[in-house]
Amino acid sequence: MSDLARALVARAEGDEQIEACVERVRRTEVRVHGGEVESLTEAESHGVGVRVVIDGREGTSSCGSFDSELVDGLLSDARDNAGFASPDDRAGIAGPDGHPVTKRAEPGPGFSATSSAEKIDLALAVERRALDLDPRVRGVRAAVYGDQQVERAVVTSTGIEAEVSAARGALSTSVIIDDIDGGTRTGYAVDAGSDPSDLDPEKVATLSVQRGLQLLGATSISSGRLPVILPSRIAASVIGLVGSMLSGERVVKGRTPFAGRLGAAVAASALTLFDDPTDSRSITASELDGEGLACRVVPLIDSGTLEGYLHDTKSARGLGESGTGSAVRTARSSPSPGFRSLHVAAGSGDLDSLIADIGDGLLVLTLQGLHSGVNQVSGDFSAGVEGIRIRGGVLTEPVREATLAGSIPRMLLDIARVGADVEHLPGGSSVPSMTMGPMAIGGSDPR
Amino acid sequence: MLDHELVNQTLSVAMSTGGEFAEVFVEDKRSSSALLDDGRVEELTSGRDRGAGIRVVVGGSTGFAHTADLSESGLANAASAAAAAARGAGQPGTTVEVSAITDSRGNNVLIAPEDVAKATKVELLTVADAAARAEGGAVSQVSARYGDSRRRILVANSDGLLAEDDQVRTLFSVSCVATGDTGMQTGRESVGRTIGFELFDQTDVGEMAQHAARRAITKLSAQPAPSGAMTVVVGPGGGGVLFHEACGHGLEADLVAKSASVFANRVGEQVASPLVTLIDDGTMAGEWGHFGIDDEGQPAGQNVLIEDGVLTDYMWDRLRARNEGRTSSGNGRRQSYQHLPMVRMTNTYIGKGTDDPAEIVASTESGVYVAQLGGGQVNTATGDFVFGMTEAYLIENGEITSPIREGNLIGNGPEVLMGIDALGDDFAMGHPGMCGKDGQGVPVGDGTPTLRVKSLTVGGTAA
User: Fold this and answer.
1) Which of A275, A291, A365, B209 could connect to A94 by a Cys-Cys bridge, CB 3.0–4.6 Å?
2) How many Cα atoms occupy the beta-carbon half-sphere of A6 within 13 Å?
């Protein structure tokens, strides 16, 4: 793969800068239903992307094949595209920045060495176990095993030669549970790992059933304001939104309420947030970023104070700051700054102590519609929510068909407690439970 | 796209381990896009994807493999992999012969985007940028995107089908940020059709940009949205997303078959207000969700799903239809040759009603008027769904009054459908959407008249 990338870059002429990214992805997906394999996919896909910068003008072109008939035309296409771009002082292919690479263990042969039959068995085990756990489990929408092995080479005319490989697999299910009122509740769970042996069917089945059962008998709630507890996996979705809003590209273009606020108190002092792709406990950890620079720890919020943004080379230039090795990309898309492994520093106490501590509130179990109800420019936050009402520090009735709303900057300032129960989540972040609020809850009662 | 002999050979290899059904799907897709952002033309890109996906069905199991290598050996390898994955019972193979093309659709594109100079496409972006900025100093950011794609497909299967289609889509969008004392707000406008560059003979990108900019500026003075259950009026075209989520997904036969839909076993029952007739129609020429044949080779269909409130049928792909001994409704779609087809919507719309839209608002004492909806999401098993409002106003004493901030609305599909109590005699198609299901995105269209829902829960922050 590096050879192919090198050959493309070797065609650089004059002052032009070229970056070639070559990628191979192997994946397996098993979906089972009713004790049978519904589908088994085994496939390999290829990608080649070329990015050219000539006199501050950038153009790109990509194809989904190593076939020379397609690859050969990429460079001329990219050059042609660059001719129509506006010159930009920020444009330019990254060069080596000397930052040391934190080595991590090469991914093992786990996924390649495991037979399809074994992968099928993992998915079947999840479905079987989920159905056995409780008579109220009516069915399983799908039990899915998936793995993906990515190899990527990035070579540039500016002296970067980078190769990374990553492997991850996931086992997930969504169970369908009969509710007492004739209605239906669902529970979803996922487990992820960098080796098939990390995937635990028992855990996935148990968690999905537990999560569905927790909502039995759920009804709506009256509208009002309540403090909320976000268990680690829910807190991680909210923190993920914050991570996106700390993208240097958004800051350069003034598309985030956190632009221009370095050094300001943007969160409660309980919150310390950083991106740490060097922590090998994170499934999304990586040695190198999308531009081939070393991944590193990026401080974002320190005890409530905004310390920094996530940068690729272009956004760092735009703000006159140092790069943070935070480019994310595929061969088919240009690099842009983003987080890999968000970490929230541990506070104190576990979820139970947060519940006991809150008095009156809502424990959030699912959030729905974050893509449609959150505006990362204005910071407005609104989501569908399911959860359990907490009264006097005790979990009481389950709640569904309600909304939870606020604004992300306000929510960060309103963090009341951060737990010590940091969980290394399937999405790659490491986040504890949190108490926030109070937030607006919309319920079924007429206004 | 592929030699017939090669198609036959590939299908024969796919059937060699005793498959009951085999299919080869070949795709050649070219796309190009350009982005103007922050006053600069950037991210000009072009892409090409070409490959084949091969599936083999044995009993209830499907084996699937794909390859970007369209040579004889590349296709044979993929066919063998798919056959092995389907774990065929080892019956002697069947020789497959696809003789002649059974269905071939050309596109009716007037101006092929690939024949249009890049400079002309870039010019559209600058026109949009200038028009948005002309709306005033509050407009702090403008980004405009142009995109086109041409997707040629060939589908052949062991039943002897050999069909081709040529799908051209063109898209343009403008997003603006307005900045004021109250912070920042966004406004967006987009248009996308399954046609060529003639899109811009029908669409004034400057006007689109003005709308996007005004939407952002208006929202600067928006007050917090209310929270709680209330009456919601959705403007023409806006309600499509609502139906897409409230019942569209729940009427997909694959989810129905797994009892993962609240609409399972309810054909013939009243599932919606008698005002509602819901149609999924892949044949609507030029619309964003239009195609000649679906990704299983079935001609696009016009399917009535709900008639006068009564559930008449689900949407079907080949596999689910075969299990029920019926034919596909032309809803078998996939994101690319790297994906398995499944039941998907096309253009989903609600037929016109008889109410005067102005009267619908005037007869609503208090509630929310949603002029533009964002995306949505549904849990088909429970029927609970959300969708975002990106332009909305309060209704007070029968009049549309103050703009309100963005947020989600939440409801339960079956309850919301029964609660539709007014349907306008107007109609509009909504904005081009990408519908996601099990990780695959496909272009879908939707449309509605003005409509009123008795009660939805609005997720705002106002007490």
Assistant:
1) A291
2) 7
Residues B431 and B353 in one domain: yes
For residue A38, which of B320, B297, B155, B67 has the smallest C-alpha distance?
B320
Which of B49, B458, B460 is closest, CB to CB, to A64?
B49
Residue range(s) defining the domain that contains residue B400: 227-459
- Give the number of other CB atoms < 10 A from CB of residue B120: 12
C-alpha distances (whole Å) from A55 to each of A9, A155, A314, A316 are: 17, 20, 15, 19
Pairing of strands A305-306, A298-302: antiparallel
Residue A400, token pair as written in the block:
């569904």
Q: Residues B214, B234: one domain?
A: no
Residues B210 and B130 in one domain: yes
Extract the runs of DSSP E, i.e. beta strands, from A372-433.
Answer: 380-391, 394-407, 415-418, 423-424, 430-431
Q: Could you report the predicted ipTM of this complex, rounded to two decimals?
A: 0.91
**Together in a domain, B240 and B216:** no
- Hunting for tokens 């920042």 — which residue is that? B184
Residues 6+ apart with CB under 8 A from A56: A87, A88, A89, A91, A92
Out of B166, B198, B220, a domain closes at B220
Per CB-CB distance under 8 Å, the chain A contacts of B222 are none
Which site among A60, A181, A401, A410 would you substitute to test the B interface, given the most B Cβ atoms closer than 10 Å to its Cβ? A401
Among residues B451, B362, B357, which one has the least CA distance to residue B399? B362
Total number of domains constituting chain B: 2
- A332 interfaces chain B, CB cutoff of 8 Å: yes
Contact assignment for A371 to B377 by CB distance below 8 Å:
yes
Say what the pTM is.
0.94
Asked if B196 and B307 sit in the same domain, the reply is: no
Q: Which CATH code of 2.170.190.11, 3.65.10.10, 2.40.30.170, 3.30.2290.10 fits the domain covering A2-213?
A: 3.30.2290.10
Quickly tell me which residue has 């006199």 as its tokens: A55
Do B146 and B30 lie in one domain? The reply is yes
Same domain, B240 and B355: yes
Q: Closest Cα to residue A248, out of A343, A316, A340, A325?
A: A316
CB atoms within 10 A of CB A185: 27
If asked whether residues B212 and B240 sit together in one domain, one would say no
Quick one: which of A100, A93, A52 has its CA closest to A296? A100
Q: How far apart are CA A151 and CA A158, in angstroms?
A: 21
| Contacts with B366 from chain A: Cβ below 8 Å | 447
Helix boundaries (H) for B221-370: 240-243, 253-257, 318-323, 357-362
Domain parsing of chain A, residue ranges: 2-213, 218-447
End position of a domain, from candidates B220, B248, B269: B220
The pLDDT tens digits along chain A (447 residues) read 889 999 999 999 999 999 999 999 999 999 999 999 999 998 889 999 999 999 999 999 999 999 999 999 999 999 999 999 999 999 999 999 999 999 987 777 899 999 999 999 999 999 999 999 999 999 998 899 999 999 999 999 999 999 999 999 999 999 999 998 888 999 999 999 999 999 999 999 999 999 999 999 999 899 999 999 999 999 999 999 999 999 999 999 999 999 999 999 999 999 999 999 999 999 999 999 999 999 999 999 999 999 999 999 999 999 999 999 999 999 999 999 999 999 999 999 999 999 999 999 999 999 999 988 999 999 999 999 999 999 999 999 999 999 999 999 999 999 999 999 999 999 999 999 999 989 999 998 754
- Cα separation, B434 vs B459, in Å, equals 24
Report helix angle A116-133 to A201-213, nearest 10: 30
- Surface of A (207-236) touching B: CB under 8 A: 220, 223-225
Question: Strand A17-33 relative to strand A434-442: parallel, antiparallel, unpaired?
Answer: unpaired
